[in-house]
C-alpha cells in the first residue's frame, strides 16, 4: 500500500495542475458567487442628527448577520434607486424606513431587529422619565447580573423556516461540485492500472486485492478531503466567511460526502471499459447531481415535483442539506444523522457493487486478447 | 517444473482455451505462437496464476498453483503485452516502485535497479520520464520491471509489438542473454523468426487449442517431405525445362518469367544434376535458392491460413 501511495504522490508531483485547477475553481466560483455578502448581508444606513438615531445605529451594529454601511440620506436614496438588490434603512428620531426591491426573509428580520431596538430605547425613555436616570442604571445593572427574564423565542418548527446565506450556498455548492471531479479522476487510476497491466503485475507480486483497492481508494479519499479542508479553511479563516460556529461540523459532514463520492466513482468505473468513457459519465453525473442536489441554487425555490423527487439520488443533496443545517440553521450533528447515515449506507452499497463488478471485468480483460 | 494439465477456460458461453497441455522444464525456452484470439494471453494468465481455469490445473514443482499460487509468484517474472508502467514517473522511479512491491529496499533495491538498468540499456536515461521514451525504450523498461526480483521463470507476452527494428534486435539480444544465463522462458509472439531464434520448443495454438508442438525441426517436418528450389537464369529455355522433367519425373516444374521453381522430394540431392543440365543446355544460372519450410509454412499448413491473417 505504501508503494501505491509513493507512486501516486510522485505522479501527482509531476502532474499537479488538475488538483490545483479544481481547488482554484472552487475558490474562485464560491468567492465570486458568494462575495455579495461574505457571510453577512450588507445594509446601507442613513441617519438624521437626533441622539436616538445615533443610539439605534450603535445598537444595530451589535446585530449578527448584517454588515451596516453608514452614508448620507441622498447617497442612500441614489444607491437604492440604482440597484434594486440594495437594502437600505433610513433612521429618523421616531421612525424608520426600509428600502428593498423585494419583500424577503432578510427584510422582515431586519425590520424586526430595528423595531426591537426602537422599543428598547422607548422603554428606557419611559423609565427615565418616570423614575429618573439612576433607576434605569439600577435596572440595567440588575438585568445584566440576574438575567431576571429569560425569554426564548422559537418557531413551532424552526427547521421549516427557509434561511438563506448566499456565501455559504456558493461555497458549499461549488466545493461539493468540484471535489466530485477531483475524487473521481483519482479513482480512475484503478481503471488505468487495470488496463495498463500494472494491476496484474502487482497481483503477481502477491499484493492482495484489499491492499490494491485500499491503497488507491485511501489516496483518492485523502486528496478529496484535503481539497475540501483547504477550501473551507481559506473561506473561514482568510476570507472570514461566517459558518455560524459550525466549522468542525462542516469538516465531519465533508468526510462523509467524500466517502460517498469515492464509492460512486468506483461504481462508475466498474460499468465502463475505458477511462475516456468514465470521464464522460463522471462529467455528466457531476453536473446533474449538482443541479438536482441544490448546489447551484437552494432547493427551497425549486417548484418542479420531478426535480424534488430526483434530489434523493444526488449525493450533493445529502451533503448540502446537512451542511446548511449545521451552519445556517445552527443545528447539531445529531440532528443531521439521517443525511449522514444515508451517505454511509449508499457508499457501502456502491463500494460493494462497484468492486464486485470491477473484479468480474478483470477476468473479461483476459478474454479480450 | 511448470505444467499445464488439460487447461480449459470459458468466459460465459465462449470457450477461449480448450484442453491445453504444456510443459516448461528448468532452463528451457518455450515459444507459444498463434494468431490474435488464439487464446495465448488467457493461457499465460492461467499459467501465471492471474486467472483460474474453468477446469484443468497448473502445477508448479508438482503442486497445484490454483490452491497455492504464492510459491510460483515468488519466482515468476511477467512481461505483459501492455506497457505496464507509470508514464509520469522516471525509469528509475518505476523500477523502484516495482522493486518495493517485491519487498526490496535500501541498498539491495538500488543495487538491483542499477543491474537491471544496465541489462536493459537504460542507465543513461534512468532519470527521464517514461512518457518521453520511444516505444522501444518503454518495452525495454517493461522487461526490466519484471526482472527486479531475480525471477527464475520469465513469461513474455508479445514483448516486441510495435517497435523499431533496432529496439527489437536489442530486446531479442537481451532475452537471448537471459536464456543463456539459465532463465526459463515462455515467449509468445506473432513473429515466427523471434520464436525460432529464441526457443528450443514451440507450441502452436489456434482457436483455443494446441494444434502442434515440438522442436523447430519436428514441427517443420510436419509440413512436407518435399524441398523447393528456385532457379534464376539469363535465358530459361524450354529445352532445359524439359530436361529437368525428364531427369526428375516426380518433380513439379513451374516457370514465371526468369524464375523456375522446382519442387521435388527431400531425399534427392539435385543441385549438381541441375547445374549439369543447365550447362548442357546453354543456360547460365545466376542464382539457386533451396527453400526450407519455415514455421510460417507450418502454421499455414496446419490451419490453412497465415499467422498474421
UniProtKB/TrEMBL annotation, chain A:
GO cellular component: plasma membrane
Keywords: Cell membrane, Membrane, Transmembrane, Transmembrane helix, Transport
Domain ABC transmembrane type-2: 133-361
Subcellular localization: Cell membrane
Listed InterPro entries: ABC-2_transporter_component, ABC2_TM, ABC2_TM_bact-type
Keyword Transport among record annotations: yes
Signal sequence region: none
Transmembrane segments: 16-34, 171-191, 212-235, 247-272, 279-299, 336-358
Keyword flag Transmembrane: yes
Protein name, UniProt field: ABC-2 type transport system permease protein
Organism this protein belongs to: Psychrobacillus insolitus
Automatic annotation (TrEMBL), chain B:
PROSITE patterns associated with the record: ABC_TRANSPORTER_1, ABC_TRANSPORTER_2
InterPro entries reported in the protein's UniProt record: AAA+_ATPase (IPR003593), ABC_transporter-like_ATP-bd (IPR003439), ABC_transporter-like_CS (IPR017871), P-loop_NTPase (IPR027417)
Record key words, sorted: ATP-binding, Nucleotide-binding
Residue ranges occupied by any ABC transporter domain in the UniProt entry: 2-232
Pfam families: ABC_tran
One Gene Ontology molecular-function label: ATP hydrolysis activity
Protein name in the entry: ABC-2 type transport system ATP-binding protein
Species in which this protein is naturally found: Psychrobacillus insolitus
Amino acid at each position: 500500500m505504501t508503494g501505491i501511495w509513493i507512486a501516486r504522490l510522485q505522479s501527482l508531483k509531476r502532474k499537479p495542475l488538475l488538483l490545483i485547477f479544481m481547488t482554484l475553481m472552487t475558490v474562485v466560483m464560491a468567492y465570486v458567487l458568494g462575495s455579495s455578502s461574505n457571510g453577512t448581508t450588507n445594509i446601507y444606513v442613513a441617519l438624521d442628527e437626533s441622539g436616538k438615531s445615533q443610539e439605534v445605529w450603535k445598537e444595530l451594529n451589535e446585530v449578527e448577520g448584517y454588515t451596516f454601511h453608514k452614508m448620507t440620506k441622498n447617497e442612500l436614496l441614489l444607491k437604492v434607486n440604482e440597484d434594486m438588490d440594495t437594502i437600505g434603512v433610513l433612521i429618523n428620531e421616531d421612525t424608520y424606513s426600509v428600502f428593498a426591491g423585494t419583500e424577503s426573509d432578510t427584510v422582515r428580520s431586519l425590520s424586526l431587529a430595528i423595531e426591537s431596538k426602537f422599543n428598547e430605547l422607548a422603554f428606557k425613555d419611559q423609565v427615565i422619565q418616570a423614575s429618573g436616570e439612576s433607576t434605569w442604571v439600577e435596572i440595567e445593572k440588575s438585568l445584566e447580573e440576574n438575567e431576571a427574564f429569560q425569554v426564548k423565542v422559537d418557531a413551532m418548527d424552526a427547521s421549516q423556516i427557509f434561511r438563506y446565506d448566499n456565501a455559504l450556498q456558493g461555497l458549499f455548492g461549488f466545493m461539493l461540485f468540484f471535489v466530485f471531479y477531483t475524487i473521481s479522476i483519482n479513482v480512475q487510476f484503478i481503471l488505468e492500472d487495470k488496463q495498463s497491466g500494472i494491476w496484474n503485475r502487482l497481483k503477481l507480486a502477491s499484493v492482495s486485492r484489499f491492499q490494491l483497492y485500499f491503497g488507491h481508494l485511501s489516496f483518492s479519499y485523502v486528496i478529496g478531503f484535503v481539497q475540501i479542508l483547504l477550501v473551507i479553511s481559506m473561506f473561514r479563516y482568510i476570507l472570514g466567511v461566517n459558518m455560524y460556529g459550525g466549522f468542525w461540523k462542516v469538516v465531519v459532514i465533508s468526510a462523509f460526502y467524500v466517502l460517498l463520492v469515492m464509492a460512486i466513482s468506483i461504481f462508475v468505473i466498474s460499468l465502463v471499459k475505458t477511462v475516456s468513457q468514465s470521464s464522460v459519465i463522471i462529467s455528466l453525473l457531476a453536473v446533474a447531481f449538482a443541479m438536482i442536489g441544490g448546489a447551484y441554487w437552494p432547493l427551497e425555490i425549486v417548484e418542479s415535483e420531478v426535480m424534488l423527487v430526483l434530489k434523493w439520488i444526488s449525493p450533493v443533496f445529502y451533503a448540502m442539506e446537512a451542511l446548511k443545517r449545521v451552519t445556517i440553521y445552527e443545528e447539531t450533528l445529531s440532528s443531521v444523522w439521517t443525511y449522514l447515515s444515508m451517505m454511509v449506507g449508499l457508499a457501502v452499497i456502491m463500494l460493494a457493487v462497484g468492486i464486485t463488478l470491477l473484479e468480474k471485468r478483470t477476468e473479461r480483460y483476459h478474454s479480450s486478447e | 517444473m511448470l505444467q499445464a494439465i488439460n487447461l480449459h477456460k470459458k468466459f460465459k458461453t465462449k470457450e477461449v482455451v480448450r484442453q491445453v497441455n504444456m510443459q516448461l522444464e528448468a532452463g528451457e525456452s518455450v515459444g507459444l505462437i498463434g494468431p490474435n484470439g488464439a487464446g495465448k494471453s488467457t493461457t499465460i494468465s492461467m499459467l501465471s496464476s492471474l486467472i483460474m481455469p474453468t477446469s484443468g490445473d497448473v502445477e508448479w514443482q508438482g503442486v497445484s498453483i490454483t490452491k497455492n499460487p504464492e510459491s510460483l509468484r515468488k519466482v515468476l517474472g511477467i512481461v505483459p503485452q501492455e506497457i505496464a508502467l507509470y508514464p509520469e514517473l522516471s525509469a528509475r522511479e518505476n523500477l523502484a516502485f516495482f522493486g518495493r512491491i517485491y519487498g526490496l529496499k535500501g541498498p539491495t533495491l538500488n543495487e538491483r535497479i542499477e543491474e537491471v538498468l544496465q541489462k536493459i540499456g537504460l542507465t543513461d536515461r534512468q532519470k527521464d520520464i517514461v512518457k518521453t521514451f520511444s516505444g522501444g525504450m518503454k518495452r525495454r523498461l517493461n522487461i526490466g520491471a519484471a526482472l527486479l526480483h531475480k525471477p527464475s521463470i520469465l513469461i513474455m507476452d508479445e514483448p516486441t509489438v510495435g517497435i523499431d527494428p533496432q529496439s527489437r534486435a536489442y530486446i531479442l539480444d537481451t532475452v537471448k542473454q537471459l536464456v543463456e544465463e539459465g532463465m526459463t522462458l515462455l515467449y509468445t509472439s506473432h513473429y515466427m523468426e523471434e520464436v525460432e531464434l529464441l526457443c528450443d520448443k514451440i507450441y502452436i495454438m489456434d482457436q483455443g487449442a494446441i494444434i502442434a508442438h515440438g522442436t523447430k525441426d519436428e514441427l517443420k517436418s510436419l509440413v512436407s517431405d518435399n524441398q523447393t528450389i528456385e532457379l534464376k537464369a539469363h535465358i530459361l529455355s524450354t529445352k532445359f525445362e524439359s530436361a529437368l522433367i525428364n531427369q526428375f519425373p516426380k518433380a513439379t516444374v513451374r516457370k514465371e518469367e526468369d524464375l523456375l521453381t522446382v519442387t521435388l522430394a527431400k531425399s534427392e540431392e539435385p543441385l549438381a544434376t541441375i547445374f549439369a543440365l543447365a550447362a548442357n543446355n546453354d543456360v547460365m544460372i545466376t542464382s539457386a535458392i533451396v527453400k526450407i519450410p519455415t514455421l510460417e509454412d507450418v502454421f499455414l499448413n496446419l490451419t490453412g491460413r497465415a499467422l498474421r491473417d
